[in-house]
Amino acid sequence: MTTLHDAQRPLLVYVGACDEVPTYLRAHLDLEACTIAAIAGPNEPLPATPSRCDPILLIDLSALEDEPDLTETVTGLRARFGEGARVFCLTGATAIAEQLGALRAGADGLWPMTGTGTARYEPLTARISELMSDQAVRPRILVVDDQPVAALFATRVLEGAGMEVRALSDPFRVLEVIETFRPDLILMDLHMPGASGTELTRIIRDHDELVATPILFLSGEIDPAIQMDTLRVGGDDFLAKPITPQRLIAAVRDGLARSRDRAARTLAAARDIAWIDPGTFARRIDRIIAASPVGDPTHGLFLIDSEPAAEKAATEPDGRTLPHTTRIAAGLAACLEPTDSLARLPDACFGVLARRPDPRRLRRLGERLREAASEALNRDGRADRYQASIGLATFEVPADDALTMLSRARSALAEARRQAGASLVIQTPATARGRCPAHSAPITALIEQALHDGTGLELFFQPIATLRPMRGEPFDVSVRLRTTSGELIPAFDFLPAADEAGLMPAIDRWVLEQALTAQQRGLNQRPALRLLIQQGRSVLQDANWIQALRDQVLARDLIRHRPILRLSFFDLMTDPATAVDRGEQLRRLGIPICIDHLALSAEALNLATRLRPALVRLRAAPALELASDELSALIHRIHDIGAKVIIASIEDPVAISRVWQAGADLIQGNFVQPPGPTLDFDFAGMVLE
C-alpha cells in the first residue's frame, strides 16, 4: 500500500542506457528519502512509482541509445513529467559550448562527470542530495503585490512548483508578516499605493537579520533607470511582466539557490574565515613558500578527512537540511582565526592554512580540527561511528611549490588513515629545496629505484594559457619523484642529485617516452593538444638522440601532432655550435623548440636568432623587473626572430596585465592553474583580445 510518506518522496529519474549510474546512485543516496527510477530513453515507459513530487530528471547525453535533439528531449520530458520537473544533463565534456547548449535546450543545468570511481560520482550525488533536500523542506515565498490577480497568479504558479506561498496586499504589514512567516524569498511588486517596492526593500535591508533574504522584483516597469534602482537598494533580480510560469519558477529557484550558497559560505566563514576555492588555496600556499625561502615552522598545512565520505545530510536546529560538508566546514571554521584559510579540495578533503606562534600550538590546532570534524559527523551522539583523520605538513622544511606541500600533507593524511582514523600525523619531508649534495644519497637511491621499477617518477601537466588568438592547447610537462611515503619531490630538488649520479640521460629518455605516450592518448580528447617536453643537456650531446626521437614520433603516429621540445638556455650555451646543429636537425623533422629561461642579454638573443625557436619562455620575476618599455622592446625583439613569448611563473592578475600590454603571447603559472596529473584545463575564453 502506498503511504503518504511514499508519495511525498522526491522522484529521481535517470534517462540513459548506462546501468552503472543508477546502480551507484541507489547505493549512495538515501533510499528512505527518495525514489530512483531508470529509463533507457525519453519515451520509454516509467516503472510504477508512488512519488507525486516534482521529479529530478538526469539526461545522460553520453548514454542515450539514439543521438537526440536536446531541445525536443527536454521539452518532451517536461510535458511528460510536468513543468515543475528539474532537468539536468550529464556529460563528460566541460566546455562552455556544451553548457550553453544544455541551457538553450531548456535544461536547468549541465553537470560534467569526469574522472573515474568515486571522483566521478561524488559531485553528482552531492548535488542530487542538495536538490532533494530542497524538496524535503518546502521553500517559503512571500508575494507582496496590491493587485489580487497578479498575486494569485504568482501564488498558484509557485505552489504548483512545491513552494509554500503567502500573499500580502498591504505593504505596511510587510515587516509583521516577515516576522511570523519567515520567508526564504520575497517576490516584490514595484508600484503599490502608500509605499513602493523600492522603499520597502530599503526598510527590509535595514534589518540585519533580513540582509541576506533574496528579494526579486516583479513589475511591468520598462524604464531601465527605475529597474536599476531596484537593484541598487538591495534587490537581487528584476523580472518583467508579463512573465511565463516557467520563467517565474526558474527565477525563484535560482534566487533560492544563490541564497543557499551564500548561507553555506556564511556558515563556513565563522570568525571571518573564507571558504576559498582550491586554486586560491594553492596560490596562498605558494605565497607562504615565496615569503619564507629558508622555511617557516609557524605555518602549517592541514588536510582533514572524514570517514566515511558519505553524501549524508543532517537536520539543523531550525529544521533546515544542509549537506554534511557545510556542517564540517562550519565546525572547522569555528576553530580558526581571521588570518587562516579554509578550502574544500577536489579529493573530498578539507584544507586549512594556519599560522601559530610555535609548532606546539599548530599541533594543538590540529587536534581541535580533528575533534570538530568528528563532532560534525556525529550529531546523533554516536561518537564511535565516524572519526576524522588529519595530516599536517609544516613549512619548516622549504618546498618548491604548493604541489609539493600538498603531497606532504596528503602523505601525512594517508598515514593517519592507516592508523584507523581519529589521529593526527605530522609529515617529515624526504628532502628540502636546495639541499646540498651531501644529503643527496637517499634521493639518488629513490631515483635509481624509480628507473628500475618504472614507478616513482610521475609526469605533471600545467596549461599554458594564450593571451592572443592562436591555434593549439599547450601544456608544459614536468617530472616529479614520489617517495615511498607519497611525498612529491619537484625536479628542482632531485635533478641535481640525478645529474651528479649520471642518471640524467635515463631520466630524459623516460620523460620523453612517457610524455609522447601522454600526447598520443590525450589527442583522443584534445585534438589540438601540444606538449612542451623538457629535455636536458645529455640529449644535446647524444648523436643518436635525433634518430631515436624520430622513431618514437613515428611509432606513436604523431607526425601531424609533433611535440615541442623545451631546452634550457644554459644547457644550450654549454656548446652553442652543437645546439645550433641539433636545432637545424629538429627543424628538418618539423619538431619546434622552446628556449627555456632565456637570459636578458645580447649574447642570448644572438643564440636565439641562430636557433630560430618557435617559443621563448621568460621567467616572470626578471621580466617584470624591467621597465614597461624595456619589456615591450624585448618581446618585440623575440617576435622579430619568429618566436612567440611565454611568461612563466605568473602569480597575480597585475602581472598578467603588464605582460599582456607588453605583447606577450602566452602565460604559465599557478595563478592560471597549478601543475596536475591530468590534462584538464578549459582553454575556451582565455584570450584577452
Automatic annotation (TrEMBL):
Keyword Phosphoprotein: yes
InterPro entries: CheY-like_superfamily, Cyclic-di-GMP_PDE-like, EAL_dom, EAL_sf, GGDEF_dom, Nucleotide_cyclase, Rev_trsase/Diguanyl_cyclase, Sig_transdc_resp-reg_receiver
Organism domain of life: Bacteria
UniProt domain Response regulatory: residue ranges: 140-256
Species name: Thioalkalicoccus limnaeus
Domain EAL: 440-689
Ranges of residues in domain GGDEF: 297-429
Record keywords: Phosphoprotein
Protein name from the UniProt record: EAL domain-containing protein
Residue positions, PTM 4-aspartylphosphate: D189
PANTHER family (alphabetical): CYCLIC DI-GMP PHOSPHODIESTERASE PDED-RELATED, CYCLIC DI-GMP PHOSPHODIESTERASE PDEF
